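Hello again,

I reread your note about wanting to compare the complex against the isolated chains. To keep things tidy I'm splitting this into two emails, and this first one only covers the full assembly. Below are the input lines as submitted, including protein chains and any nucleic acid or small-molecule components. They are followed by the predicted structure of everything together. The single-chain runs will come separately.
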Amino acid sequence: MEKKLTIGVIGGGRIGQLHSRFITNNFPQVKIKAIADVMADKISEWARGIGIENIYADHRPIIDDREIDAVLICSPTNTHAQYSIEAAQAGKHVFCEKPIDYDVGRIHQVLQAVETAGVKFQVGFNRRFDHNFAKVRELIQSGAVGQLQIVKVTSRDPEPPPVEYVKTSGGMFLDMTIHDFDMVRYLTGSEVTEVYANAAVTVDPAIGEAGDVDTALISLKFANGAIGVIDNCRRAVYGYDQRVEVLGTRGGITVGNDLPTTVSLSTSEAVLSDKPKYFFLERYEGSFIEEMRQFFDSIANNRPTPVTGIDGLKPVLIGLAAWRSYREGRPVKVED
Amino acid sequence: MEKKLTIGVIGGGRIGQLHSRFITNNFPQVKIKAIADVMADKISEWARGIGIENIYADHRPIIDDREIDAVLICSPTNTHAQYSIEAAQAGKHVFCEKPIDYDVGRIHQVLQAVETAGVKFQVGFNRRFDHNFAKVRELIQSGAVGQLQIVKVTSRDPEPPPVEYVKTSGGMFLDMTIHDFDMVRYLTGSEVTEVYANAAVTVDPAIGEAGDVDTALISLKFANGAIGVIDNCRRAVYGYDQRVEVLGTRGGITVGNDLPTTVSLSTSEAVLSDKPKYFFLERYEGSFIEEMRQFFDSIANNRPTPVTGIDGLKPVLIGLAAWRSYREGRPVKVED
Amino acid sequence: MEKKLTIGVIGGGRIGQLHSRFITNNFPQVKIKAIADVMADKISEWARGIGIENIYADHRPIIDDREIDAVLICSPTNTHAQYSIEAAQAGKHVFCEKPIDYDVGRIHQVLQAVETAGVKFQVGFNRRFDHNFAKVRELIQSGAVGQLQIVKVTSRDPEPPPVEYVKTSGGMFLDMTIHDFDMVRYLTGSEVTEVYANAAVTVDPAIGEAGDVDTALISLKFANGAIGVIDNCRRAVYGYDQRVEVLGTRGGITVGNDLPTTVSLSTSEAVLSDKPKYFFLERYEGSFIEEMRQFFDSIANNRPTPVTGIDGLKPVLIGLAAWRSYREGRPVKVED
Amino acid sequence: MEKKLTIGVIGGGRIGQLHSRFITNNFPQVKIKAIADVMADKISEWARGIGIENIYADHRPIIDDREIDAVLICSPTNTHAQYSIEAAQAGKHVFCEKPIDYDVGRIHQVLQAVETAGVKFQVGFNRRFDHNFAKVRELIQSGAVGQLQIVKVTSRDPEPPPVEYVKTSGGMFLDMTIHDFDMVRYLTGSEVTEVYANAAVTVDPAIGEAGDVDTALISLKFANGAIGVIDNCRRAVYGYDQRVEVLGTRGGITVGNDLPTTVSLSTSEAVLSDKPKYFFLERYEGSFIEEMRQFFDSIANNRPTPVTGIDGLKPVLIGLAAWRSYREGRPVKVED
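Full-complex prediction:
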């Protein structure tokens, strides 16, 4: 990346701050000129501390700033589509956190706006950029395992989000599993054609009372003939469990968790080793940097982004099918 | 085990020879007085070599031998029920290889005969006696993982059986997965209430042409509220893949494969380690000995056998439900 | 092995019973006709139970029995040389537990007697027959690691022997490390030319008071230019620690411990896995059987034994040099 | 760290650039005002790119700059002492790369100058700040393994430095092993009292012709009664091998290598996993950042530095003893 790039960040919550910090530390060619957040007061000290000069309570000044080349949309999900459309119409490249929206029609409007404007658009499926999973994809594409037969994703959080969050989250399949739906598409290079969601409430009854589930095994069929399963739980007491397994006609792949250390303590009782890295900030730090690097590169070198609008749409379609499957107790085809 | 025990073996094929050899080597108190096989000629040299005096082409002399306390039924599946009933009626304890039968009514006749006769009856689900899986069960029962949430079984063979075998095998769910259906019951201590079989033919089209599948992800619901999935494939090129994972409210358990050695070779290309032990003979040798030890103990000490007739029936019911699920493309309840 | 072989066992203690049991269970062609032990009364019930007909308080009846083809010498160390010589002179093949003797002149007498008699002679360095270490040797010999540079052996016991035993044991280097001296010769295919023993008493002061050490790092030079180190401790609270590492110009090899199970329990505190198999009986069971198989084969097929008299002599020479090194605080050359 | 800090970097080679980059990316409160390098022309573009305004060919302008609070000495070893003394005398805090010098008298002059000036002084033993080794130290200090008995360090490079470098490097014990001498002091909290260096040339005869060795096992005695061994090789074809093992009366600790990914590929041949991270830049990145964080913190909060001048002296004394041991073929006491 040679060219200087000026960006604005919309949304200064946890994920907006995370992206801002990683950009400041790793991309000297990229200047964050402005950040917008409804709680502008609360973030202004932090923002100035990392050199962001303009802090707004509203997103429009960023959209209207002709110096800004690209925006990062890190605001609440229900604003993603609106802000993406506005930014695209203003000729800005867009990096949008997942999901684009829960409404398929609304997602199509975003994709349309992006296409009309001819700007870059990338969705925040950061796990594609993880060192482990990127290598699995590479091995699969190189033919190391032959033709795919079985794909298994384990994705468990160390603790559930607050029930208040759960209520507006779109439910586990659209909030949490959506990353895994993207992962299986990324790894297999094939589309999910049918899902069957076997789910339960085993972590917290309040999650069930809020109409959601917290534990699931989602069975998948792929267009290429492979089958798969995603295993989710909102709480694994031993930490963030992020693993993948693949079986193909020529071999199998497994991916273990990243651990804080390789230290192992042998006592008279047992051999003790580290639990997985605590949660997504620790586990996926490298992937957040790498996704941004590739976003900036796609702008600088006018190349397609590595996670397109279609890649943002498909996991939502799968998630909606998973919800229908769970509610109707039967396998459901994934359709647009 | 103090008392001397005299037994007869019906069926001198691979599994019959395996049991006979392990018994000869490990149980000095047990005398194999006779073996019956339709190919008596073929096995007589081997049988005499390990000290079996009587070799018959027919099973009846064993049933009729009043000195024989117990019989091992290792003959083809379609004879299991008949021989079990005859042996029970003759007052002999019965160890019957899995499955008892594919016909549920026929299995009930066996259970009835056994109960009427008041003899011991044990089904050959040897994997329950495996060092790894027995420890998982023990940990679960001790409360180490709290309340069960997710159970995952990986069970893949190194190579598929001949298609001729497949045709009479009852199909993958009754021939291969039946061990895994038993395993999940054993590990969870709970009954499977519903199955959904996501299956495909990815190994050999001839298996599909024979009406069977060779790759499957079978989604399960348990009476205790947990959910599970069994992952099967008739061929994993890297060998016999036998693993289990459990998630509970207080912890998780994983079981890796047993390896021939712990040797690891680091070269300029990669770090290379051993593939899993080749197949069930290598992998489950200890479990075959242990299941027999417990069978003999249950006779000697008049205790219940560790794998009862009901334990023989249930996996067949689950397997039949799995077949229905696969054929009808929907989840199916497991019922008697 | 086709031919029937009749053997006698001299010494019915732990190791004599272990060999007898493994032979009875695994080698139908081998008949243990007699066992001799000064405590004949104490072992007679056990011996009859596994089918040994003759139990003597003295070794001579075995030496004098013309039906006996080979003897296993499992008696106390100070009788090994004498019984080996008597057996050889009586024309019997000899399997002698390690060490042959602590006196080099006495060992030479044994080797002389064996050569004169033209009988087979094998020393009980069972670890050569371990699945892990045998594979390391095979990899080295195949050239997988190129030219050897560094060899490291870790060999720690779960608990020290009684101090009374220590006093007559020849000291750690001749009693415990002797196995490791043999191991490095076996793995490298090269002779140890110099040792430096860095040792201490860290486990039990009483061991030090008895003139012995309980912890050591023994630095080695090999004739082929490689260097090595053996790490010993009489007590590792986590169990029997038996590992090897090799570095060569084309690669490295590591060997981990054998574990009772592959089960791993992840809790909110840590990931817990199994300690190594407890001690040599558990860890080296397979090697005891395999060394005997090869001993019987070398007799049956008139082939050299896999652990010769020279292989019995060399580790004693190294051990004596290690003692001199420790006492004089300097490296010492290994010489006959 | 609250206070702003202005620093200068002396030496713009690989390690100087590495520190500069990490500081720029991670410590917004620290300003690198100037860098000095004899090849000022060559580094000026790079230096300006990361925001360093002043690039000098000589170190004096940095020493003389009254705005500069601290200097990082990253120049060739033979200038470390001189520049450290000058910087201290100018009242600047000093971070000095290892080794301070190879001449013990010269090191004492540095320590004297630092003490007189009352400035902070830290030596660049970065591995103390590695996540793995820091945890081992913490476990040892917490008593998790009881009283230390054995310490083993494996430290092998992926490839040897150029022979030209070797000639002026002080030899392997002072150039490479010096890190390991520091590591054993750090881990054990005890001093090395005696060394015996068993070394060889097995990698490249040219290294031997230059008077150096490339392979070594260095046996150690510690003041606390423990013993240890360091295993070094200038080339391990599988990469940078950095491991530690500790045995204590209550347990053992092992530390494995950090791997680029946790991906494991199982084929019909073997199970393949990643080689260790390539070399010190990849492996110890985190430790370089952490050592600097603690250096800056010790200045900001007027606390002792975590690696003192004595910590810089001791490994040199051990290294010199190791050279004497190797040359004289005997154990040598470590003395000032």
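For quick reference: The longest helix of chain A spans residues 309-328.

B.
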